[in-house]
Amino acid sequence: MGRRARGRRLQQRQRPDGAEDGAQGGGKRSEAGWEGGYPEIVKENKLFEHYYQELKIVPEGEWDQFMGALREPLPATLRITGYKSHAKEILHCLKNKYFKELEDLEVDGQKVEVPQPLSWYPEELAWHTNLSRKILRKSPQLEKFHQFLVSETESGNISRQEAVSMIPPLLLNAHPHHKILDMCAAPGSKTAQLIEMLHADMNVPFPEGFVIANDVDNKRCYLLVHQAKRLSSPCIMVVNHDASSIPRLTIDVNGRKEVLFYDRILCDVPCSGDGTMRKNIDVWKKWTTLNSLQLHGLQLRIATRGAEQLVEGGRMVYSTCSLNPIEDEAVIASLLEKSEGALELADVSSELPGLKWMPGLTQWKVMTKDGQWFAEWDDVPHNRHTQIRPTMFPPKDPEKLQAMHLERCLRILPHHQNTGGFFVAVLVKKCSMPWNKRPPKLQGNSVQSRQPMQANPADPTAGGAADPSELESKPVAGIGDTEIIERTENVENNGNRKDGVCGPPPSKKMKLFGFKEDPFVFIPEDDPLFPPIQKFYALDPSFPKMNLLTRTTEGKKRQLYMVSKELRNVLLNNSERMKVINTGIKVWCRNNSGEEFDCAFRLAQEGIYTLYPFINSRIITVSMEDVKILLTQENPFFRKLSSETYSQAKDLAKGSVVLKYEPDPTKPDTLQCPIVLCGWRGKASIRTFVPKNERLHYLRMMGLEVLTEKKKEGAVLTEESTASSGPPEDEMSAEQRAEPAASPDAAPGSDPAGAALPQ
User: Fold this and answer.
1) Which residues are responsible for catalysis (predicted)?
2) pTM metric for this prediction
């Protein structure tokens, strides 16, 4: 098995179920993270205790608290999505309604603990509580709170995410103009945080920056897509590559091809996961130092690949959910040593006030799975050289070690703030990596036909026992930036590619894993499909129509998607070397009977906040009472809406409309965030095309108790429908039945936010 294949297998198999965060991670993790009650298992591992006591990662006198915390269930934590304009409304709703109901509440004679904000997370947007799912279901008040969490998580307004997992994106310090790479992104909670940072200013529909989220596991990439879709951003692209050899991309800058370097890189590598023992109960039984020894090389290769793609002056965060210095400080020390001053550890001690952490270790030893210790590389017998590598040991030279400032690394211990265990290091790039400074060697065609960038020459997992200093002194087998650019231009000029079509890479150049994705086809400027849309919605001349794409090269275009111009640039220039799983947000869907109307495409709720700033007609301003009626009744007649709404709607032709609610600052008790909904103006009625969870979210924000509303007023709310038991959005009038359903259970390609993949 080749090194790359071995690395891919390690990434897929060795990443622990709890390596990422909350409930989005799927079955086992969500149960562990939120249930709190585990099957009986002996939480003992003598080798684990011996190892960490010897390494002295815990301050003197705190060992019992450390082990005690590891044996306790992990508190549930949630994060309010920070970029949406109604984050403050959700926080207000949580604090003044749901949390208040938890005060003085007892379940089985035990007082319920009211959630508390995480002291180090900005603006009280992250909270933790010891409530378990079992407790949530025991009382009607708690069940209501649980329904709120589930519904808001589906809508993308809340992320149920482990507290320590929130730290790396905060330390990246990303801004809306930054180009960001998330190297090992699935299941995607950290990626979601990064997307929020891009959209810090909600008045800017297309930030200059973007997030490219990568994962080696094809199936986990779709989990990543689901997470990203909840945030409806045109600035996210999900790709499927081995992070240790992720291709170097090029972009077009004023007609010239240039290598894409990232401003921020998140390198949350696969790890042994012994910091997740509180929710990943299996780690107690399975823990051995062998896991760390096997993963160290892969972690170092991924970190090195990230450092190569970082722009000078850029910031990279390396993190693991492991406490083991072999996976933590050893990787950082080796990376700093081989960078020869190109990288340095940033001092972030003041960036998250309130967070308790331990400084990184400067001395550690290596232990085999049998309990045998080695203090330095020279002590390791020859027959152990394939398992133990020189990069696993601290640097011998005290001056070099001191200059690295390994104490600037952050190790979070579980007992300090009732969290999981975690490790974070923040690296800043001062100049090019030494092997990238060397001029490319003139090489034969056989060498040139290799992957553009090979893994770092000082491969710590190489089978032989060669001295690493010899390896590092050899020239890199990769190629220079200029050669990459020339080759890209040759590929693009060979006439085999259609303009604006970004398909999957040819199989000869890259071995594909998983499903074959549909191509990304940008709509040509002269496409006759667009003028009727532009006229119908009176789109602003500044509308970036070049950024519209579909996922089919033949037949009728059923869905139109939108990406930012920066991601368009990336897509068009890299389709030969990049496997894209998903990008873009849906902005228009074709009506099944579209030819009957002036425009064949209706608006999609998923992309309405991006599209709305460019729409100048078919906008109906509605009151809060109108919004309540539109979201609770299936197809209300005009007479049920306010006279102001009726006067705006009566002269509009049948078809898709925008329903806009503007808050009234003179009435602070009412909803204080704007709402934009997609609707349909029928013959004598208006309906909304909004996914179920989003409907429930808006109603909740307006003070309607959704569960009781449904029971009490079910017949009234759905008086125009024949059945009143199901949610009103699951049914349609005869007039609308020709349209794609907007119910949450609709097939992919319909409107729900949770729709899987564009068809």
Assistant:
1) 321
2) 0.81
